[in-house]
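Why do we care about 3D structure at all? Because function follows from shape, and shape follows, mostly, from sequence. That is the central idea of this module. The next example makes it concrete: a single protein chain, its amino acid sequence, and then its structure expressed as tokens.
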Amino acid sequence: MKKGIFFAAMLMCVLTLGGSQSAISGIYRYSEKAYITFIGNVFTGFWDAGSTMSGTFSVSGSRLTLTITGGTKAGNSWVWTIIDANTIRDQDGDRWYRESEASAADRAATDKLVIWSFTDELGIIIKGVPYSRNFDAYFTETHPGVEIEYSQTPADLFQAKLDPVLASGQGVPDIISLERSFVRKYVESGLLLDITDIYEANKSRLFTYPAEVGTYNGRVYAMSWQACPGAMFYRRSLAKKYLGTDDPQVVQTYFKSFNRLLDTAELLKDKSKGACVVVSSLRDLANAFLSARRDPWVVNGRLVIDPAMEQYLDIGKVLHDNRWEGRFRQWSEGWFAGMRGELRDESGKPVEVFSYFLPTWGLHYVLKTNAPNTSGDWAMIQGPSAYCWGGTWIGAYKGARNAAAVKEFIRYATTDEAFLEAWAKETGDVVSNTKVVNKIKDSYREPYLGGQNHYAEFAEITKKVNGKLIQAGDEVIEAIFDENASAYWNGEKTKQQALLDFKAQTETYVLPSLKKTLP
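And the structure:
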């Protein structure tokens, strides 16, 4: 191989050499930054220029054949030569020498991973968790030889910190956390390490949509330990009062489609004599409509306005004009007051809010936190459409110094079943591993939801989410759509004008930038 090329691989085998068995294991090093670690009967590899590989091997005498099935070199087959148990020669004639166990241990102890995050979740995965005394499975405990330099930056400043170092290639962290709103920007950038091999080794046990979000052009560049499905949370007391039951299976029939939601909103308003609104804010419905689309915003470089988004405009207009929604901004004090049963309109009259559309974290960090007085008076259903909201993915810079350690961290955080089970039990996260979810989902009973098993319900919703709808640019496109939708609902624009303005603004300011990668 050419000098300066970095190649990290894992390969476990028993080789027949000159009629005798010689076990090749441990680290075989070509240079300070180029080495191969033999651990299993498969291998993965990485060069600092950004190329990757993974696959299987076979041995015939001194002939070592690497069959490359994954990475940027997929489809190739390389033949190496086994000289002895301590030396192998690659196809370019360069020799790789086995490193002593002592040297390998010393080197591992000094290996350092630089990790940047916008959320404390990654720091907790690394160092430990404050949620409860029972959590004892985290990365530094199970990988004591890896040094980690961890940095957390507020989400609104994170991209401004990350983009310049990615552009220059200087001071780039090895591992980065990526939020739902901007994960695709980096997945599609060409700057992340290909981790398809980790996904392929675990895909039979993973929910589909988180992997779809991290996949671009058939390769996986980001993975997540969690899924963030959304649901419709409703007040049991209001359901009994106006629908005659708080049974989730029955209540779901009232909200099984968006048109049915509209009918039920009218019913709630009529039976309550104007006091009960179906939602506090129209923005609550946005993620449900976005997930009901057949196509993403951009197809073959062209803007697509899916019929589901036109339906969002139509239904929002009816809800707004008939005052079947609360007309409060999402995240405003009025929005939170509705959760507590303390909302009043502009004339001082009480307003009852029937439901909130929130994801997994919304239960624990929005409802429970802001409306503790209503514990036990909530239940959840899917509502008119399965959807997701938020979530954190992990990716790595393609020029990471220690690709083997980087991949081990990602593998651990996103696929290790002992860790994920402990994490799920302590945090309430619906983890991305279906085997873990199926193992624990039937044991949940949530007092805040009147004893309902929310975890099992979320697991079913997760199966229906289409991660392929999520793209780079969504955050900006959806902000433009939301601005024009509000103008239509408030009577400032016609529907036609709102759509024309949305199309013009998106095609002028967003689509051109999507044709470029990060500098």
